[in-house]
Amino acid sequence: MVLKAAGRTSLVDAVVDQLRAQLTHGEWAVGDRIPTEHDLAEQLGVGRNTVREAVRVLVHAGLMESRQGNGTFVRSTADPAAVLRTVRAAGALDVLELRVALETEAARLAAARRDTHDLLRLRAALATLREEGDRDADADLAFHRAVVEATHNAAFTEVYRFFSVQVHESLVESLGDHEMPAIDLDAHEALVVAVEAGDPEAAGAAARELLRVPLETVRAIAAAR
Questions:
Q1: CA atoms within 13 A on the CB side of 99
Q2: DSSP state of 150
Q3: Which residue of 58, 106, 158, 200 has the fewest CB atoms within a 10 Å radius of its CB?
């Protein structure tokens, strides 16, 4: 393995970037043990402390796993930071189309799996949304997160948590645009009722309907521009 030697500026960041590149380009496979700090330091032309800090960053990001006494191993070759950058670069239409897919299935699962705590949380989120008004992106996002968490699917919840960063930015931008419709509180109520009734089909339909008008509006704005 040949790594490009890091310069003097932002050494840790440079090493992080180079190690990330090795992961995403398949230099190491999931489960592989990466070279020792000493070897990486020599290959990169930096100190061992710099390598150690860079590895810590990648461990924190979930790409690597440190096992005491055994070394550091590759946990994932998919860089979540790169995924997030791509999602953040997506437009409002892309985000809404993905939201329809994610939130329709989340509503279906929530209706089938919700418990008493989930129902109380959904009602509380809806009440907050009504109190804060139909232009409050934070309250709206909290409501949708409550629906997703009622799926009791850890993977679904984590993916939506990751995706919700862009959802929030999209909401803030769109709700501040007078061309966008206000939040449909009745549609949110219909979704809660369907989840409470334990009706997956009705919940999925309600989630899709909830996003229908915003989606159609964004498509019309995009076409006009």
A1: 26
A2: T
A3: 158
CB within 8 Å of 197: residues ≥ 6 apart: 111
pTM > 0.90: yes or no: no
Residues β-bridged to residue 71:
67
Rounded CA-CA distance 171/156 in Å is 20
**pLDDT tens, 165-186?**
777 776 667 656 667 788 899 9
Beta partners for residue 67, in sequence order: 71
Dihedral sign, Cα of residue 85, residue 91, residue 92, residue 93: negative
Torsion (CA) 111, 114, 119, 123 in degrees, nearest 10: -50
Q: Give the pLDDT score at 90.
A: 62
Question: Which residue type occupies 58?
Answer: L
Render the burial of 152-186: b for 16+ CB within 10 Å, e for the rest.
ebeebbeebeebbebbeebbeebbeeeebeebbee
Interaxial angle between packed helices 137-149 and 185-196, expressed in degrees from 0 to 180 and rounded to the nearest 10: 20
pLDDT at 9 over 50: no
Over the stretch 111-123, which tens digit does the pLDDT of each residue have?
999 999 999 999 9
Q: Which two tokens stand for residue 153?
A: 């699917």
Q: Cα separation of 208 and 225, whole Å?
A: 25
Is the Cα dihedral 13, 19, 25, 30 positive or negative?
A: negative
